[in-house]
Amino acid sequence: MSASNIDPVKLTQSLISCPSVTPTDAGVLQTLQDQLEEIGFRCTRMPFEETGTEAVDNLFASYGEGAPHLCFGGHTDVVPVGNSASWTNDPFDAVIKDGNLYGRGTADMKSAIAAFTAAASNFIKTGDFKGTISLLITNDEEGPAINGTQKVLEAITKNGEKIDSCIVGEPTCPAQLGEMIKIGRRGSLTTNISIIGIQGHVAYPQWTLNPIDALTKVLSKIVDLKLDEGTEDFPPTNIEIVKIDADNTADNVVPHSATAQINIRYNILQTEDGLMKLLQEITDQELLNTEYKSTIEFRNSAQPFLTKESDFTKKIKEAVDLVTGLNSEFSTTGGTSDARFFKDYCEVAEFGLVGSTAHQVDEHVAVKDIENLAKIYEEIIKKYFN
Ligand SMILES: [Zn+2]
């Protein structure tokens, strides 16, 4: 066992220097595994693949035995750098300048993995404890998320592993470390509505049936929906049209078909089935007694969930407030994360760094924030096993 403390900033830099753009792991899992094995974690690599998707490697590392079991959920993969010429420094050089650490994956979310590793190491050194600390790290969160967290959870559960509580280290704070803890997320339903009409010459509308006319009527009904007012924990369900396409390159042709894509971010007052039924009904109603034909496809990528305020969420808040001096807020805002998979196995909350530069050019976090995040995680672990 290593006697010296793990420096979370240095470990972050090592992780950043591996260009692990999904699904490539570029040595990042091995870098982390080496560090975890040095402090006594049992590490298992869990690669998964599925037809039509890229094979992805994952890492499950655990220390201790039995309950209670606290797991840290994270991902080592990063989004592409975008226009690399726009970066001030190489996105994988992990440069520190003016108190900030720059690089792809600093905010989202290699720093949090390093911070948790340092925190766990410090805690383990203080002596024996009853229970298990683990890290479930995937390299498939930013991509399709098919060969990652979900499959690892299935596999370790089959092996008899039982996680009681999980903290996901996504960047949850809008501007200042300690502002926000996420205790739930909205669901996400994508819908493609296609309407088929009769193609023809725009000068002879009597022989055509314009699918755009029907589609815009359907869409106006959908955007006017007021589904709910939200709850104490969730904002109102929101519908956005994200794409409209008639695949038409001519100005003198009424197109054959028109398609719109809609994304709904919904709270726990709605259900996937209920929303699908509603969109189908609106479309059918509008096209009733017409010659239009339609098809609707749905893809639900996340169910909404809420972790009720509990002993676990209370301990997280106490740790965050203690280190930062702030009065942190519980929130359910933002996009989806792998917490959507953990929620089927255990109580889950999310806390991490300031995420304002995540996925951007010159992504960065404050060095001080990485150090404080390690302190916060250490407090959480202490309170959890106390
Ligand atoms: Zn992330």
Provide a descriptive summary of the structure in words.
With 386 residues, the chain is an alpha+beta fold. The protein has two domains: 8-185 and 304-385, Aminopeptidase (3-Layer(aba) Sandwich), CATH 3.40.630.10; 187-302, 2-Layer Sandwich (Alpha-Beta Plaits), CATH 3.30.70.360. Helices cover 30% and strands 25% of the residues. The protein has helices at residues 8-16, 28-38, 106-125, 149-158, 211-223, 272-287, 311-324, 339-342, 367-385; strands spanning 42-45, 58-65, 69-75, 96-97, 100-102, 131-138, 165-168, 180-182, 184-185, 187-196, 200-201, 238-245, 253-254, 257-266, 293-302, 305-306, 329-331, 347-350, 364-366. Strand 4 (96-97) and strand 5 (100-102) form a beta hairpin. Helix 1 packs antiparallel against helix 2 (28-38), helix 1 (8-16) crosses helix 3 and helix 3 (106-125) crosses helix 9 (367-385). The mean pLDDT is 96.
